[in-house]
Amino acid sequence: MIEKMPVRLIHPQLVRSVCASCVAAAAIALAWSPARAAAEHESAAAAASVAKHSSANTSLPSVQQAGPLADFHGTPASAGVREVANWAFYTHDNHGRAVVILDKQEATVYAFTPGGYLVASAPALLGLAVGDGTVPGVGDKPLTKVAEDERTTPAGRFLAEPGVDDTGVDVVWIDYDSGVAMHRVITTFPEQHRPERLASPNAKDRRISYGCINLPIPFYEQVLSPTVRNLGAIVYVLPETQAPREVFGSWDVTDPAAHPPVVARRPAAPETATPHPAQRLREPQALRTSGSAADL
Q: In 3-state terms, what secondary structure has residue 225?
């Protein structure tokens, strides 16, 4: 029997709103005002520290220009996730879009509204091999020719792009040219036990894919897909072989002594989604299935 996948839904009323229609970021912030008030205690100290020191630290935006800190609403997250989330919203690196963060070390994904509020978190399946790059040409290989050490999920900042694979199943592309997408968990090969791995509390069990990011069906259909299609999203895939600041140029904006790192940041994702023709996933054929709200 497959255990229930631990999707943590923080604001179900907002998920329903996003699914129903294209909701403006300001409307989302208003709809969440009660939740925001309840969560202010958690982030008040960090926000006060930022406001106190931002004018003295020329590496940070001024108080008038600064965005909010991420509101996790009590959800546990690694230091890397918190750094990148706070930095993305505070510096407006998300350009007004929703934010999705994949913590590869914990094999967990977090989805935020454009205003910085966490909507939901969920476990994720990702590339079998440890690594933050993509082997050149791997997206063009037949899956049977992709070696185990080539099955990586690339780290970086990606513009999420809704699309379809070559079987007509909807996916969210993060690296179209390499065939890497976020999609419903695939069950093509029962011997891989992907649903069981997704339900496992052990992050190491969730390393199985060819590079794509497999998600619980309710999370994909009720959180990720409508968010990307209605609001747009930037996906930050955290590295596992280096620090986040080495990939994104991020820093701890809650630390008064922090400064932007001097790094050779990877090329930024384009800011406008480009329609793509159907593309073969770097995965076995996805099966079109639907989840129930009761599964969240």
A: helix
